[in-house]
Write a structure and sequence with these properties.
The complex is a heterodimer of chains A (about 425) and B (about 475).
Chain A: H1 19-25, H2 30-38, H3 41-50, H4 63-68, E1 78-84, H5 93-100, H6 102-116, E2 118-125, H7 130-145, E3 161-166, H8 176-183, E4 207-211, H9 212-224, H10 226-232, E5 241-248, E6 254-259, H11 265-272, E7 282-286, E8 295-296, H12 306-311, E9 320-325, H13 330-344, H14 350-367, H15 375-386, H16 394-408, H17 410-417
Parallel strand pairs in A: 1-2, 1-4, 2-3, 5-9
Antiparallel strand pairs in A: 5-6, 7-8, 7-9
Helix pairs in contact in A: 2-6, 2-9, 3-6, 3-10, 5-6, 6-9, 9-10, 13-14, 13-16, 14-15, 14-16, 15-16
Chain B: E1 3-6, E2 9-12, H1 19-25, E3 49-52, E4 59-60, E5 71-73, H2 77-92, H3 108-116, E6 139-141, H4 151-158, E7 165-168, E8 175-178, H5 190-195, E9 201-203, E10 216-221, E11 230-236, E12 239-245, H6 258-262, E13 277-278, E14 281-282, H7 285-296, E15 302-306, H8 311-324, E16 329-333, H9 360-365, E17 369-370, E18 380-385, H10 391-395, E19 402-407, H11 411-414, E20 419-422, E21 431-434, E22 440-443, H12 456-464
Parallel strand pairs in B: 1-5, 15-16, 15-18, 16-17, 18-19, 19-20
Antiparallel strand pairs in B: 1-2, 3-4, 3-5, 6-9, 7-8, 10-11, 11-12, 13-14, 13-20, 21-22
Helix pairs in contact in B: 2-3, 7-12, 8-12
Classes of the chains: A alpha/beta (about 425), B alpha/beta (about 475).
């Protein structure tokens, strides 16, 4: 299940990030060469579609399709924006790519820009990634020096500039339209859709926004061909490998690479993660970043990929798995998660601005033994009034955990309300 | 035309129209807060939910354009629950101080709460409060009442052309305020109060003066400049309390300037002359008309007419001088430096025009020449003015002449006149005026004239009569 890795073997060694290493050990810039010299944009998009490359940021949208939405004939400039805001709690896979294989990202941006007709690409990186921004800038400089960026790349006549733009540390700027607003220097607030970024994105121009891992997969995909890339995935409609960020109560937390759809959640926890810390019992798993609905210990025999997880009512999200053992207080955990979303709500739309804070207040009362018996149903009702009703996905992200925690672990909440358990 | 179905009714629409507009045409009202037809669509308040067939989630009607064959439900259970949810969220932190709020009675939050909310409150936590900034002389801010619809921010940016309102902080702590807490600078600040869907931004001029539901409304035209903004005079007990803009997409859209909004004050000013006055003493109408007759005595006269008078008044004056003072010359006056409609240019990119009188175009249409062309004047000069025309600009030119004023004068203006006969202001008369585009619009009487004020036509008629007889007023 982890024999064919594309990224992992290059991680954890500082010298691997140099251009020399990239050229010698990772077939560096060969895919870009192939694309610029032998292919036309439509062929690139077709290849990516064949490779079943799903977006790695959270929604799992097919990447080739996304690029296909960019209008071919447009008088306006087009932009490819790399979303390096990696803000979903528990996720740290993009950081690995930017730290150890920055040229993979740059090459991916060259190919992507060629495919959609972009001349200036942006990497929007989260403010906290200070070092990664420096490393990216150093790699970009290296690429400029060697003619992989700038005018007339590799003698092909194709021009591309890349700018690294640092965010100021808001979760919401990982949402693609919030990111674009922030990139333009405005408040980081999501925009109304439609129009979608493919029609009117950065600076009002057609824009594709893709996650770091998605873009970094493109050179691999081109080099091995779409069909071979698709076959790396062991499940329909999901090609390539997936980087997973495994954290929480496992013996070996970390970023691991698996072939898409090749393992179940149980295998990830027991085989890759080495089982639960101190050999405790598993209580629950948050399978795709803190916004994904929680799974109980009985629900983890599910293939870890987009569609199987959707079938059991949760989501793969950014592939950040948080493992929770039996000693964990889920009420406390839910309060912490809800507090995060209430804090990160941008405040423009009503249900999220008012509701997330209200949920936090109710949970606070429950935890401190001040809640009435009806408050638990109230909490769920408030969450339902947020979920699916907000301008962007942050409302869903905040409501999902609340609904699933209460549904699956109701007795824990009730014991606080009844006074059987006290906050310590 | 393409068609869609709203609540079972088939409606035609123009491509690009959103569901709120289309539903309105079908007689279906969709509740809104952040949506305003004159501003961009942000879909933030989440009040205008509708259910659309084949779409899994509720959609906001403001940001959804009608499409051929679309089937929309505005009263289904999910919609009703969604709106109730939004109403509950909006009221979590609203102070519910309607009894002392000026907006009560015309408040979107109040109306939609009544229509779509619940009478019960499930929220028991402490409410969010803010410290308010001073917004300047026009607008009073009460941030606790704010529902963060951002209409004010968008109005500033998109209509008034000034980025002065902003959202600071985020999430539950979001605050809508001015940049650095500075007072408002725009000359269109009154609109902030109009578009605010709650009592968060209210008009200082109107504050605590009248409950909104007691006001009677008269649709008329602003006489502040030659733009001719459509407005409503709101009054009660023969007192005007405020003026608000009326929608007219050809002229002022939904807006008006503060100068026009506050213009009505002079008509109720204690310095306005409300009885005939000769020298420094007030006299009766019979004496006044007799004195006027004696002084003008069918001689050719120089007659100055304000370009703030209505078309009917101007016609009356022209007819009177033609019949009773043959050889008279009539000139119009209004704003210094703006003598012809060619000189009447926009002051800004929004509404204001250079001519501070409303009917310059109409005066020109009647062939009246500008006061600039006046070479000499008769010993006695009749000056007709409606209140906005700059009387001082002509009295300067006529030093040494005997001036008789007919119209709306203040005590200060009357000092250079030997006699003043008071007449109706724009709030007290009917008539038509032509705006700078040449559109003819109708002034409508909102309140009854005070004291013994008479219409210009009546004054002229009494003067033309052989025998002076003034009926009971």
């Amino acid at each position: 299940m982890r024999q064919n890795t594309l990224f992992e073997q290059h991680f954890w060694k500082d010298s691997n990030r140099s251009l020399d290493y990239y050229l010698q050990n990772m077939n560096g810039y060969q895919a870009a060469q192939k694309v610029l010299k032998e292919m036309n944009p439509d062929q690139v998009i077709e290849e990516v579609k064949k490779g079943n490359l799903r977006g790695r940021g959270g929604a799992g949208f097919p990447m080739g399709m996304k690029w296909g939405f960019i209008p071919k004939a447009s008088e306006k400039p087009k932009y490819l924006v790399c979303n390096a805001d990696e803000s979903e709690p528990g996720t740290c896979k993009d950081r690995q790519i930017m730290r150890y294989t920055p040229h993979l990202l740059i090459e991916g941006l060259i190919i992507g820009s060629f495919a959609i007709g972009c001349k200036h690409s942006y990497i929007y990186i989260r403010g906290e990634y200070v070092n990664e921004a420096k490393l990216l800038n150093a790699a970009i400089e290296e690429a400029y020096e060697k003619g992989y960026l700038g005018k007339n790349i590799l003698g092909s006549g194709f021009d591309l500039d890349i700018t690294v733009h640092r965010g100021a540390g808001a979760y919401i700027c990982g949402e693609e339209t919030g990111l674009l607003n922030s990139l333009e220097g405005k408040r980081g607030e999501p925009r109304v859709k439609p129009p979608f970024p493919a029609v009117s994105g950065a600076f009002g121009c057609p824009t594709a926004v893709n996650n770091v891992e998605s873009i970094a997969n493109v050179p691999h995909l081109i080099r091995m061909g779409g069909d071979a890339f698709a076959q790396l995935g062991k499940i329909d409609k999901s090609g390539g490998t997936r980087l997973i960020s495994l954290s929480g109560h496992v013996k070996k937390p970390g970023v691991y690479e698996i072939q898409a759809g090749s393992v179940t959640l149980r295998q990830i926890i027991e085989d890759i993660g080495g089982g639960i810390i101190n050999d405790k019992k598993l209580k629950a798993v948050i399978p795709g970043g803190s916004s994904s609905p929680i799974l109980t210990a009985d629900e983890i025999d599910v293939v870890y990929d987009v569609e199987p997880l959707m079938k059991v009512g949760t989501m793969m999200g950014s592939a950040a798995i948080m493992v929770i053992h039996e000693d964990t207080d889920l009420v406390k955990l839910l309060l912490r998660i809800t507090k995060f979303y209430a804090h990160e709500s941008c405040g423009q739309c009503t249900p999220c601005r008012e509701g997330c804070h209200w949920m936090e207040s109710i949970l606070h009362k429950i935890l401190h033994g001040e809640a009435k018996p009806t408050d638990l149903d109230l909490l769920v009702d408030v969450a339902q009034n947020i979920g699916g009703k907000t301008l962007c996905a942050l409302g869903d992200a905040a409501a999902g955990p609340v609904i699933s925690f209460v549904k699956k672990f109701r007795p824990e909440f009730e014991s606080y309300i009844k006074g059987q358990k006290r906050y310590a | 035309m393409p068609k869609c179905t709203i609540d079972g009714k088939e409606v035609e629409f123009k491509p690009g129209e959103n569901l709120i507009t289309v539903a309105k045409r079908a007689g279906v009202e969709i509740p809104v807060f952040c949506y305003h037809p004159g501003l961009s669509v942000v879909a933030q308040c989440r009040m205008c939910y509708v259910e659309i067939e084949k779409m899994p989630k509720l959609q906001t009607a403001c940001s959804t354009n009608a499409a051929e064959g679309m089937v929309v439900k505005t009263q289904s259970d999910p919609v009703v629950k969604g709106r109730a949810g939004t109403m509950e969220f909006l009221l979590l932190n609203h102070p519910l101080d309607c009894p002392i709020c000026d907006k009560a009675g015309e408040c979107d939050l109040q109306d939609n709460s009544f229509g779509h909310g619940s009478a019960n409150m499930r929220h028991t936590e402490e409410r969010r409060t803010y410290v308010d900034v001073d917004m300047g002389p026009v607008i009073e801010k009460n941030m606790n009442r704010c529902i963060h619809c951002t209409r004010c921010i968008r109005f500033g940016e998109e209509v008034a052309g000034i980025h002065e309102m902003v959202a600071i902080q985020r999430g539950n702590n979001i605050d809508i305020t001015t940049i650095d807490g500075n007072p408002l600078q725009t000359e269109y600040a009154g609109n902030y109060a109009d578009i605010c869907p709650t009592g968060s931004l209210t008009l200082r001029d109107f504050r605590f003066r009248k409950r909104a539901w007691m006001l009677k409304k008269t649709s008329t035209i602003c006489e502040g400049c030659s733009k001719g903004c459509n407005m409503e005079i709101q009054h009660e007990g023969n007192v005007i309390y405020r003026c608000v803009p009326r929608e007219n997409l050809e002229i002022n859209k939904y807006w008006m300037c503060d100068e026009g909004r506050m213009n009505y004050h002079y008509t109720q000013d204690e310095k306005r002359i409300l009885n005939p006055r000769s020298g420094a003493t007030f006299i009766g109408w019979e004496d006044a008309i007799q004195t006027l007759k004696d002084q003008i005595n069918e001689k050719p006269l120089t007659v100055l007419v304000g370009s703030d008078l209505t078309q009917q008044e101007l016609e009356n004056i022209l007819e009177y001088t033609k019949n009773y003072h043959k050889g008279s010359s009539v000139y119009h006056f209004g704003t210094e430096g703006v003598f012809t409609s060619a000189q009447d240019l926009p002051v800004d990119k929004i509404l204001k025009m250079k001519s501070k009188t409303s009917n310059l175009n109409g005066a020109e249409k009647l062939g009246i020449k500008s006061v600039q062309e006046m070479k000499s004047a008769s010993d006695v000069v009749l000056v007709f003015a409606g209140g906005r025309a700059n009387v001082q600009s002509v009295t300067k030119k006529l030093e040494g002449k005997k001036l008789i004023g007919i119209g709306v004068y203040s005590l200060n203006e009357a000092e250079s006149f030997s006699m003043v006969l008071p007449s109706l202001s724009f709030t007290e008369k009917d008539g038509t005026i032509f705006n700078h585009q040449g559109i003819e619009q109708k002034l409508k009487r909102a309140i009854q004239p005070k004291n013994t004020i008479k219409a210009i036509s009546e004054i002229l008629m009494l003067t033309a009569n052989k025998k002076v007889k003034v009926g009971a007023n």
